[in-house]
C-alpha cells in the first residue's frame, strides 16, 4: 500500500507534496537537479494571456524567517507556456496544476479554456489573490461576489477541475471560501502571500521597488494554519495548504489543520531538494504518530 | 551540474577591514566551468535568515578541491558567515551562473581587468587563468579607502596593477576611470565587476571595445526559477528582462541596460 497517496478532484497524487506556484518556475531548473516524477504534483508559475515582464527590481527582500516578493507575475504568456513549458514537463510522470492569472474575467476564461486542454494539466489553480499586480487580481480575491462569478465563469470553460487560491489579505477568509464554493470550485488552495514591506536601514526607503511585497516563508505559517483550520470546517471541498512549509513536521501540521495536501514554496529557495527530502521523511513521521495512511491525519485538530 | 553540498571550511581570515577570505573544500569544485561563477551560501541553520547569499568564487584549486571566496561582512548574514571557523561546515549551492569567457582573449593579447570594491574577487581567478594561457593582464582596482584594499600583492604577482581609492589614502585618488583616462587603449578585451555606476562608466569609456561585465541583483532561488533577479536588456524597444543568476551574472557589454 502507498501510505502517502492522496486522491483529490482531478488528481491522483503519489504523495501530498507539490511545489507551490511561482517558487518552481515551470520545473526546468529543479528538473535538472532531481527526478520530478517523485513529486505529488507541480503547481507551475502563473500564466497570463499575454507575456508579462513583471515589476522593476529589487523584487525580493529577506525578513525575519520570511521573505517579501513582488515579482509581478512575469511569465511567457499562454502561447509560450503551451508551446515551450508544458510539453517539456510531459517527460515526467507527474500531474500539473496550472496557475491561471489575469486582469479581467475574459483573460482568466481564455487562459483556462486553452491551458486546461494540455494533456498533462490535471487541474487549474485560479490565482485571484496575487498581491503584486496593480490592476485586477486583488479585487477578484477580496470581493465574495466577484470571486464567485469568476469561479463560475472559469468552471464553465475548464476541461479539468478548478481550485481557487485564496488571499489572506481579507477581513474574513471564510466568506470568500464559501463564495468560491458556491461558484463551483472543486477545491481551495491557501494561502497566498501576506502583504508587507521592509525598509532599508540606511535610507529609510522601501527595499522592494514595488514598495510592498508578498510575505512568505515560516513567518506566515501560523496565519496559514489558522485560516485552513477555519475554512476546512465550513466547506465541503478539499484544501491544498501552503504557507511556510519547510519540513515533514510542517506538512503534518497542515494536514492536522484540515488540508488534504500541501504545497511547498519559499523552502525551495532555501533547499532545492526540500520536496524529495520531505517525501522521504514522511513515512517515519507516520510511524511515529502510529497512523497507517497519511489521510488519517486530515483535520485531526478539530475532529473528536 | 549544480550541487548542494556541506563544504568544509579550510580557513577563514580577515584580510582587510570587515573583508574576509574563506577557503572551502568539497566536490562542487570539480563542477566549476569558468571564473566569475558564484555560489549560494546558506548562512544560518535556523530559518531566521532564510535566503541564501550569493558570493563569487575568487580562486579555484581543482587539485585540492578547494575554492576561495572573499566577502564583506556587511549585513546579518555575511556577519554570521564571518564567525565560522576552520573545521566547520557550510551549506553551499553551486556552481551557479555563467562566468567570464576567457576564450575571448587570445594568448599574446592584453586584457584590462577592472574591479570595484567587493566586485574585485572574481577577477583574481580570471586573471590567473588568462595569465596562464599567455594573456597580459592589467588590473585596475578601485576601493573606498586604504583599509578595505585587499589582494594587492596577489594581483601584482600576475601583472601590472593600479590601485585607486576614493579618498586617496593609497594609490591614485579617484575612481577606476581616473586611471583608465591615462592608460592606452591598446588592449583586446576588458572584463569588469563592481557597482553598477562603475560598470556604466567603464562601458561608456570603452564603448568601441569588446568587454564583459558582471552584474548583481537580489536573488531568491539563484537557479533561474523565481524571476527575482532579472535585469532589463537593451535589445528591444519594449523592455525585455533576463535573469542575472542563470543567464549571467556575466554579460557581454551592451546587453544590459544600465
Ligand atoms: C552574483 C553575485 C556575486 C556576489 N559576489 C560577492 C562577493 O564575492 N563578495 C561579497 O562580499 N559580496 C558579493 N555579492 C553581494 C552579496 O551577495 C551581498 O552583499 C550579501 O548577500 C549581503 O548579505 P548580508 O547578509 O550581509 O546582508 P543582509 O542585508 O543581511 O541581507 C539581506 C538580504 O539581502 C540580500 N542582499 C543584500 N545586498 C545584496 C547585494 N548586493 N546583492 C544581492 N543580494 C543582496 C541578501 O542576499 C539577503 O537575501 C554578490 C552578489 C551577487 C548577486
Ligand atoms: C517568489 C514567489 C513567487 C510567487 N509567485 C506566485 C504565482 O505566480 N502565483 C501564485 O498563485 N502564487 C505565487 N506565490 C505564492 C506561493 O505560491 C505561496 O502561496 C506562498 O509563497 C506561501 O507559501 P510558502 O510560504 O511556502 O512560500 C509566489 C511566492 C513567491 C515567494
Ligand atoms: S534568483 Fe531566482 S531567478 Fe534568479
Protein topology:
The complex is a heterodimer of chains A (304) and B (258).
Chain A (H helix, E strand, L loop, with lengths): L5 E3 L2 E3 L3 E3 L8 H4 L10 E2 L16 E4 L2 E4 L7 H13 L6 E5 L4 H11 L5 E7 L10 H5 L1 H14 L4 E4 L7 H10 L4 E4 L3 E3 L16 E4 L4 H12 L6 E3 L6 H10 L3 E4 L2 H4 L3 H16 L15
Parallel strand pairs in A: 3-14, 4-7, 7-8, 8-9, 9-10, 10-13, 13-14
Antiparallel strand pairs in A: 1-2, 5-6, 6-12, 11-12
Chain B lengths: L2 E14 L2 E7 L12 E5 L10 E4 L2 E3 L4 E7 L3 H6 L7 E8 L13 E7 L4 H12 L3 E8 L8 H5 L4 E5 L6 E2 L2 H5 L8 E5 L2 H10 L4 E5 L15 E4 L6 E4 L6 E3 L6
Parallel strand pairs in B: 8-9, 8-12, 9-10, 10-11, 12-13
Antiparallel strand pairs in B: 1-2, 1-7, 2-6, 3-4, 3-7, 5-6, 13-16, 14-15
The complex binds flavin-adenine dinucleotide (FAD), flavin mononucleotide and FE2/S2 (inorganic) cluster.
FE2/S2 (inorganic) cluster binds next to loops of chain B.
Q: What does the model show?
A:
The complex is a heterodimer of chains A (304) and B (258). With 304 residues, chain A is α/β, with parallel strands linked by helices. Chain A has helices at residues 28-31, 77-89, 105-115, 138-142, 144-157, 173-182, 221-232, 248-257, 267-270, 274-289, and strands spanning 6-8, 11-13, 17-19, 42-43, 60-63, 66-69, 96-100, 121-127, 162-165, 187-190, 194-196, 213-216, 239-241, 261-264. An eight-stranded parallel β-sheet of chain A has the order 3-14-13-10-9-8-7-4. In chain A, β1 and β2 (11-13) form a beta hairpin. In chain A, α3 packs parallel to α5 (144-157) and α8 (248-257) crosses α10. Chain B folds into two domains: 3-96, Translation factors (Elongation Factor Tu (Ef-tu), domain 3, Beta Barrel); 102-216, 3-Layer(aba) Sandwich (Rossmann fold), CATH 3.40.50.80. Chain B has a seven-stranded antiparallel β-sheet with strand order 4-3-7-1-2-6-5. A seven-stranded mixed β-sheet of chain B has the order 11-10-9-8-12-13-16, sandwiched between helices. The radius of gyration of chain B is 18 Å and the shape is globular. The model of chain B has no long low-confidence stretch (mean pLDDT 95). The A-B interface holds A 22-25, 28-30, 32-33, 45, 53-54, 57-62, 64-67, 69, 71, 74, 217-218, 246, 266, 268-273 and B 1-2, 4, 42, 47-52, 77, 93, 217-231, 238-241, 246. Bound molecules: flavin-adenine dinucleotide (FAD), flavin mononucleotide (FMN) and FE2/S2 (inorganic) cluster. Flavin mononucleotide binds next to loops of chain A. Residues 219-222, 224-229, 243, 245 of chain B line the site of FE2/S2 (inorganic) cluster (FES). Chain B: Belongs to the PyrK family. Chain B: Responsible for channeling the electrons from the oxidation of dihydroorotate from the FMN redox center in the PyrD type B subunit to the ultimate electron acceptor NAD(+). Chain B: One of its GO terms (molecular function) is 2 iron, 2 sulfur cluster binding. Chain B: Its cofactor is [2Fe-2S] cluster; FAD.
Amino acid at each position: 500500500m502507498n501510505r502517502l497517496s492522496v486522491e483529490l478532484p482531478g488528481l491522483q497524487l503519489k504523495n501530498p507534496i507539490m511545489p507551490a506556484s511561482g517558487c518552481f518556475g515551470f520545473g526546468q531548473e529543479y528538473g535538472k537537479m532531481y527526478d520530478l516524477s517523485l513529486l505529488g504534483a507541480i503547481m507551475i508559475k502563473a500564466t497570463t494571456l499575454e507575456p508579462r515582464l513583471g515589476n522593476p527590481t529589487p523584487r525580493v527582500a529577506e525578513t525575519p524567517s520570511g521573505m517579501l516578493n513582488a515579482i509581478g507575475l512575469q511569465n511567457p504568456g499562454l502561447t509560450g507556456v503551451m508551446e515551450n513549458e508544458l510539453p517539456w514537463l510531459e517527460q515526467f510522470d507527474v500531474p500539473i496544476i496550472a496557475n491561471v492569472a489575469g486582469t479581467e474575467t475574459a483573460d482568466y476564461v481564455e487562459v483556462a479554456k486553452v491551458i486546461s486542454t494540455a494533456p498533462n494539466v490535471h487541474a487549474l489553480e485560479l490565482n485571484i489573490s496575487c498581491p503584486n499586480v496593480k490592476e485586477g487580481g486583488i479585487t477578484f480575491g477580496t470581493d465574495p461576489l466577484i470571486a464567485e462569478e469568476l469561479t463560475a465563469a472559469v468552471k464553465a470553460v475548464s476541461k479539468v477541475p478548478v481550485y481557487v487560491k485564496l488571499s489572506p489579505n481579507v477581513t474574513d477568509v471564510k466568506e470568500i471560501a464559501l463564495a468560491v464554493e458556491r461558484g463551483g470550485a472543486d477545491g481551495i488552495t491557501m494561502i497566498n502571500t501576506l502583504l508587507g514591506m521592509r525598509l532599508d536601514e540606511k535610507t529609510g526607503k522601501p527595499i522592494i521597488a514595488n514598495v510592498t511585497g508578498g510575505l512568505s516563508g515560516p513567518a506566515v505559517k501560523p496565519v496559514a494554519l489558522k485560516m485552513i483550520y477555519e475554512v476546512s470546517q465550513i466547506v465541503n471541498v478539499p484544501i491544498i495548504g501552503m504557507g511556510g512549509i519547510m519540513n515533514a513536521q510542517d506538512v503534518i501540521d497542515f494536514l492536522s489543520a484540515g488540508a488534504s495536501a500541501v504545497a511547498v514554496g519559499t523552502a525551495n529557495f532555501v533547499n532545492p531538494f526540500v520536496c524529495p527530502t520531505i517525501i522521504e521523511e514522511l513515512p517515519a513521521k507516520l510511524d511515529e504518530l502510529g497512523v497507517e495512511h497519511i489521510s488519517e491525519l486530515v483535520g485531526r485538530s478539530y475532529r473528536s | 551540474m549544480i550541487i548542494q553540498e556541506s563544504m568544509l571550511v579550510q580557513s577563514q581570515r580577515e584580510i582587510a577591514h570587515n573583508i574576509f577570505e574563506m577557503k572551502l573544500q568539497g566536490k562542487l569544485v570539480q563542477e566549476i566551468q569558468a571564473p566569475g561563477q558564484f555560489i549560494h551560501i546558506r548562512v544560518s541553520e535556523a530559518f531566521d535568515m532564510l535566503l541564501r547569499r550569493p558570493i563569487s568564487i575568487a580562486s579555484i584549486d581543482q587539485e585540492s578541491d578547494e575554492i576561495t571566496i572573499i566577502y564583506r561582512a556587511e549585513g546579518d548574514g555575511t556577519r554570521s558567515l564571518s564567525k565560522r571557523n576552520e573545521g566547520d561546515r557550510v551549506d553551499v549551492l553551486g556552481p551557479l551562473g555563467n562566468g567570464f569567457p576567457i576564450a575571448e582573449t587570445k594568448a599574446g593579447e592584453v586584457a584590462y581587468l577592472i574591479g570595484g570594491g567587493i566586485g574585485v574577487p572574481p577577477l583574481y581567478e580570471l586573471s590567473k587563468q588568462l595569465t596562464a594561457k599567455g594573456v597580459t593582464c592589467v588590473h585596475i582596482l578601485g576601493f573606498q579607502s586604504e583599509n578595505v584594499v585587499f589582494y594587492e600583492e596577489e594581483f601584482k604577482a600576475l601583472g601590472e596593477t593600479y590601485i585607486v581609492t576614493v579618498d586617496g589614502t593609497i594609490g591614485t585618488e579617484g575612481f577606476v576611470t581616473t586611471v583608465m583616462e591615462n592608460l592606452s587603449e591598446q588592449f583586446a578585451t576588458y572584463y569588469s565587476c563592481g557597482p553598477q555606476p562603475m560598470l556604466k562608466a567603464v562601458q561608456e569609456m570603452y564603448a568601441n571595445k569588446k568587454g564583459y561585465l558582471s552584474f548583481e541583483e537580489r536573488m531568491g532561488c539563484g537557479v533561474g526559477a523565481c524571476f527575482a533577479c532579472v535585469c532589463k536588456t537593451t535589445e528591444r524597444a519594449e523592455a525585455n528582462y533576463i535573469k542575472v543568476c542563470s543567464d549571467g551574472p556575466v554579460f557581454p557589454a551592451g546587453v544590459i541596460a544600465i
